[in-house]
Amino acid sequence: MLIKALKSFCMGLVMLVCQVIEASAVENHVLVLHSYNAGYEWTQELQNGISDAIQSADRPIHLSVEYIDSKRVNSPEYFARLQDYLSTKYQNYQIDGLLITDDYALRFLNQLNLNNFKNLPTVAAGINDFKASLHTTTSKGTILYERDYIKQNLQLIVKLRPAIKRLYYVADNSLSSNVLRKSFLEEFSHYPNIELIEVRDQDLQETSHLLSSIDEKDAVLLTHFNTEIKNNIYHGYTKTAEVISLASKAPVFVMWGFYLKGDVLGGYVNRSYMLGQQMITILSKQLPNPVRVTLQSENLNPSVFQFGALQKFGISQELLPSDALILNKPVSFFTRNFALILISGSIISVLLLIIVLLGFVLKRKKEIIKKDKKILTLQGQTMRVQKSLIHVLGESIETRSGETGNHVRRVAKLSVLLAKYAGLSHRERDILETISPMHDVGKIGIPEVILSKTTKLSSNEWTLMQNHCRIGYKLLYGNEGDIMRLAAIIALEHHEYWNGCGYPDGKSGEGIHIYSRITAIADVFDALLSKRCYKESWPIQDVVEYFRSGSGQQFDPKLSQYLLENIEQFVAIRHQYPDEHYR
């Protein structure tokens, strides 16, 4: 026993070492080049999105991160030295892909002359210059242009400040700010009745002083405003937002989520975290060793407002977009203690239920023990009778529907294999193999002329054909025994869709029995690969694509994944039971 355990331990250790070696052998090296410094909130969130996305990758991705810090320093001498630094550091370093954030980094990359940076999979994001490209650096580049909500925010400002006469546009002279300004001025030209006051050449203190005396009926649009180049000063977004919003007599609108600080009102905002995740998702598919990234989808509302600012400026929530997200709402007593109330109520309810159930269980226990042997005997007899009946009915359906050949036999075997990957027990798989051939038993009640029709069914004919689900259910459910009733459920539900668009009852998700979901996939998979009186057989590539597109729509997404990941085994079952004839 000891020797056997030692052998098992050694084998496991060897397998673990092999996996580590294999993982390191396919590690991808990616260089991230940020335009700004690590303390810049926009860049922080971008990097957080990149790093979090990498955590979900199925293979290692090693990051090298560089920050140009162009908002602090942007002299030609600095960029020349930075180019020398990167050339020296990475000239002999293996790079598999590049991530570029914002306009400065993209321009800088196009000026670099490093052979190992050329023609690599490259993703650039947060780019405001729509004329920018990667053509001089790589043929494998993707640019995610930053599309700020300029139009939407201007419409929002006019709606929330109907008496506005002046819009104060606060910005610095950075590259990103200058690019954004061009787009803004083009859109603002549609508002000739509003005077635009650009605040660009003043420092933070002067700007806050100016805004402290403006008309409260006007509005402020805070854009890129971090750098006072003449004073060699850089302000973080948090400080900028707090100082300006607390001083301003008019509400402050913004276009980025990191500005939602202090008394900033809000607006239609972009969030760089999701942009960072999107960059990794795109690059992962283009790397020499492709990586699969699994991310939790997150629905982020673009319009976000702060409750305190709404109250401060007397703005009704009814004027906001219907999907607006309101931050920092005051929490009621019930909401604040909801978890405690829910837990306490649940505990009391459970205790009462336990008391009732215990009394019932104790009463019934003696009766159940006495009847156990008799029930087991009857169950065995019933099971044998039901299996025999189902086999006879399955054979009759297969004989009548001549075009299916061995279809029902294959559906049974395919269902068992899929049930195995889904984690069903051996007994459950046995039951499924017995009853899945009955999914189309209701076709007994469909006229032969419809079953054998080679052209598209008319509306009335299709309605009649759909009735085979209910016919099968009524035929089977009236019989005694669990197996027959499970077969009836499959007959009724095997054309229901995961998204609720199937028939006959429009059931969805896990409201459809697991047996029905499995049988539906097995039935469609075999039908698509089979030649029928009304169609030719599909190529396996088309079938695979059909299930990919139908995952989460027509089919259970987890079951679809099991099918696609083990497609060769399912195809092998078809070869084992080939069609002998068809109509």
From TrEMBL:
CDD domains: HDc. Residues 382-579 form the HD-GYP domain. The chain crosses the membrane at residues 338-362. The keyword Transmembrane applies. The keyword Signal applies. One of its GO terms (molecular function) is phosphoric diester hydrolase activity. Keywords: Membrane, Signal, Transmembrane, Transmembrane helix. It comes from the Bacteria. Residues 1-25 form the signal peptide. PANTHER family: 3'3'-CGAMP-SPECIFIC PHOSPHODIESTERASE 2, CYCLIC DI-GMP PHOSPHODIESTERASE TM_0186-RELATED. This is HD domain-containing protein. It comes from Alginatibacterium sediminis.
